[in-house]
Specification:
The structure holds two protein chains of two kinds.
Chain A (H helix, E strand, L loop, with lengths): L18 H7 L3 H17 L7 E4 L5 E4 L1 H8 L1 H17 L6 H17 L4 E2 L6 H24 L5 H19 L6 E2 L2 H4 L12 H19 L2 H10 L1 H6 L4 H27 L11 H11 L11 H20 L7 H16 L1 H21 L1
Parallel strand pairs in A: 3-4
Antiparallel strand pairs in A: 1-2
Helix pairs in contact in A: 2-14, 3-14, 4-9, 4-10, 4-12, 4-13, 4-14, 5-6, 5-7, 5-12, 6-7, 6-12, 10-12, 13-14
Chain B lengths: L4 E3 L5 E3 L5 H24 L6 H26 L7 H18 L4 H25 L4 H19 L4 E2 L3 H7 L2 E10 L5 E7 H19 L1 H11 L1 H6 L4 H27 L1 E2 L7 H11 L11 H20 L5 H28 L1
Antiparallel strand pairs in B: 1-2, 3-6, 4-5
């Protein structure tokens, strides 16, 4: 469909290559370099950015606070989403733009379950685990809907998920009859804030668990291999006995599970929901995380650790900008500039140009001698 | 006999009347629109029978028509541009500030609109065509940038009181032959706003551009298969670049039309218009894979989208969520129809 893609990440080992060049060939170079730059900038501008202290929160629990903790904490939803998004990108060569809207659906379902249909509830009406399972089921259905359109009707992923993107938040409002349920049970908020007596925010634990789970799945099942093979060439994987349609559908359903977890964390932070503003634009951040992680948005090979790192880079950038009093509404403009810089630097054409520029003076020097 | 070729009575070869994908999808769109509107007139009657009601769809969506046409062109070349809503918003805000605080006039407003569009188009087009970055990521950054810049230009909504501007804004062009008596029996002619005339002119211009110029045909060729386009001697990069420039300039113009319609600068202006434009293009028969599409179809796409919204509202489902859900359902229906139709054709 497009011109032959030169993959800069082809990791051919050439021992005589200079170290710097070997580093820049690595897939993780861009996110790591971006992270290093951000850390360096903060170290020089104001080292107190990294200060972590233990404070008492309103319940009298000792809790960790500081910018680094908030980066790790606030990035949780994004990290979980970016894992699922990576799989979807790899298998179908497109992105799911409905994750923010389906997060709202998950949140709405969970809140409806725990509030038992009332507008405010002081105790949970349904066991938390059941509510979360219902949320997971709802988003898995959304994922299956998207996946069916993509895999069986061969609609481009971005267009297919545009349907859910348009309808998702409205469905979320509809589930709760357009009311905004509020739950005041502390037990519900454990997942989004702190467990009693534990100073580390719970979302960090959930994120680590999810990353561990995916590490195990990718290590001990053929999911990763099959996803890549479908993404690289669906026809030849079919000839090799795989069912590309089913695998594409499966990745969308897996993304659905990730979305439900992210939605759960988000509603459990505040115990309430705002349908139109909840997780606004998070789909864009998740896609950016995948791209920043050095994954080709056209599908094929993937590296979920790159995406995870990318997600943390985005959150780090956001937190840094907040620290320098950038208003939240103007934030996207700064983000856009950084994003463009990063993608321009990682574009194959630019990399080749830079490489040849470096070579040219060396050649000239040789000719003179 | 080879498929698609027939011999007429004089023995000359001529193309069989097989429809191209573009024509087929266009036909579906137009038929669906007329069925929708006829059904609305027959079963709902009331306001749908008044010509002004139909013209109001145009009045409210002049900017969306222009945006969607630009979007269709980028989609025909196989790209996408989701920055158009953001550009609309930025243009509205900048124009409002220019009129209110810097003493601008209509000319500066138009120049600002086209200038902002051109700037976005050149940068995005360069990144997409010459550096080979994915259009989605580039225009995503464009959207972020435009929305962020809007709040940097002004956080507060700006309401325009400039007289010269308001004169143009409230200018009404009566459509001869259409109109209806109001409750007092006074005949009220149906009108359109200035923006509609500009939008319709743009649709016709772009239709001619796509149909009869080398550049227009190059858009289709590049979208259909850019390697064979390259072998035919088409400059693929330049074509893609121009498609993005054209789309963003149209977005700038769309911004001016939006501004002419609402007459204020607000951060919420044009919110979600990128998705409306994509939806209209798709309903109008443009495929995201490129190479297939038509601005006339897109025009009917905008009309269908808004007709269905009105039908839903007049059925009594006036809660905000129903409109979104029906639009999504309609999008879904069209996608599935297109997909089934095209899959069948490809199998033959």
């Amino acid at each position: 469909m497009s011109a032959p893609v030169k993959n800069p990440e082809t990791q051919v080992r050439r021992p005589d290559e200079p170290l710097f060049k070997r580093l820049t060939r690595q897939q993780l170079f861009i996110p790591v370099a971006a992270l290093a730059l951000l850390v360096l900038f903060n170290l020089i501008a104001d080292p107190s950015f990294f200060a972590v202290s233990i404070n008492q929160n309103s319940l009298g629990n000792p809790v960790l606070s500081g910018n680094m903790v908030s980066v790790l904490d606030n990035a949780s939803e994004l990290v979980i989403l970016s894992i699922g998004m990576t799989l979807v990108t790899a298998s179908s060569g497109g992105q799911d733009i409905s994750v923010g809207a389906t997060m709202a659906i998950a949140g709405s379902v969970i809140l409806r379950m725990v509030c038992g249909g009332q507008v405010t509830a002081d105790t949970m009406q349904t066991p938390l685990i059941l509510a979360v399972l219902a949320g997971v089921l709802a988003t898995m259905l959304c994922g299956a809907f998207n996946g069916t359109l993509v895999a069986y009707f061969k609609i481009q992923p971005m267009v297919a998920t545009l349907i859910m993107y348009t309808a998702g938040r409205s469905i979320a409002a509809w589930i709760n009859n357009n009311q905004l349920p509020i739950i005041n049970d502390l037990g519900f908020k454990y997942a989004g804030t702190f467990l009693p007596g534990v100073p580390v925010p719970t979302p960090i634990f959930i994120t680590v668990l999810v990353i561990l789970a995916f590490w195990l799945i990718l290590k001990f099942t053929t999911l990763g291999l099959y996803t890549q093979s479908v993404g690289i060439n669906a026809n030849s994987s079919r000839l090799n006995g795989l069912d590309p349609k089913l695998i594409k559908l499966l990745t969308y359903v897996i993304l659905g599970v990730c979305v439900a977890l992210a939605g759960f964390i988000r509603v459990s932070r505040s115990g309430s929901i705002n349908y139109s503003r909840m997780a606004e634009n998070i789909e864009m951040d998740a896609i950016l995380a995948v791209a920043l992680g050095g994954n080709a948005l056209s599908g094929g090979k993937f590296n979920i650790y790159g995406s995870i790192l990318g997600a943390y880079v985005i959150q780090f950038l956001t937190t840094t900008l907040y620290k320098y009093d950038v208003p939240s509404t103007a934030l996207p403009a700064y983000k856009a500039v950084v994003v463009i810089l990063l993608v321009v630097l990682s574009a194959p054409v630019v990399r080749e140009k830079l490489a040849s520029m470096k070579k040219a003076p060396a050649k000239a020097a040789k000719e003179v001698s | 006999m080879p498929n698609g070729i027939a011999v007429d009575k004089q023995g000359r070869l001529k193309e069989r009347a097989a429809m191209s994908d573009t024509t087929l999808l266009l036909t579906i769109t137009i038929v669906v629109f007329f069925i929708l509107y006829l059904a609305a007139i027959l079963f709902l009657g009331g306001s749908f029978t008044k010509p002004q009601n139909f013209l109001n769809i145009l009045n409210n969506n002049a900017s969306l028509i222009v945006l969607s046409c630009g979007m269709s062109i980028v989609m025909i070349t196989g790209g996408i541009d989701i920055s158009v809503g953001g550009v609309t918003c930025l243009v509205c805000m900048t124009c409002a500030v220019n009129l209110e605080q810097q003493g601008g006039n209509m000319l500066t407003v138009i120049l600002i609109g086209l200038g902002i569009g051109l700037a976005f188009g050149v940068v995005q087009g360069f990144l997409v065509a010459h550096l080979g970055i994915q259009p989605f990521i580039v225009s995503l950054a464009g959207m972020f940038f435009a929305k962020g810049m809007t709040t940097i230009v002004s956080k507060e909504p700006v309401r325009v009181t400039n007289e010269g501007f308001l004169a143009v804004k409230d200018m009404r062009i009566n459509v001869p032959g259409l109109g209806a008596p109001n409750k007092l029996g006074v005949y009220i002619p149906a009108y359109v706003e200035v923006g509609v005339v500009i939008a319709l002119l743009m649709v016709i211009l772009l239709f001619c551009l796509l149909r009869w110029t080398g550049l227009g045909r190059a858009f289709y060729a590049v979208g259909g298969n850019n390697q064979s386009a390259n072998m035919l001697g088409i400059n693929v990069r330049r074509t893609k670049f121009l498609a993005h420039v054209l789309c963003s300039v149209l977005a700038g113009l769309g911004g001016v039309l939006y501004f002419l319609h609402v007459g204020s600068g607000d951060v919420a202006n044009g919110a979600g218009d990128e998705m409306n434009a994509i939806a209209s293009s798709i309903i109008g028969g443009t495929l995201l894979t490129g190479g297939v599409g038509n601005v006339i179809g897109t025009f009917f796409g905008v009309l269908s989208l808004n007709t269905i919204k009105r039908i839903v509202a007049s059925l009594g489902f006036d809660e905000a969520w129903w409109s979104n859900i029906t639009v999504a359902a309609m999008l879904c229906l069209f996608l599935v129809i297109q997909s089934v139709v095209l899959l069948r054709r490809n199998k033959k």
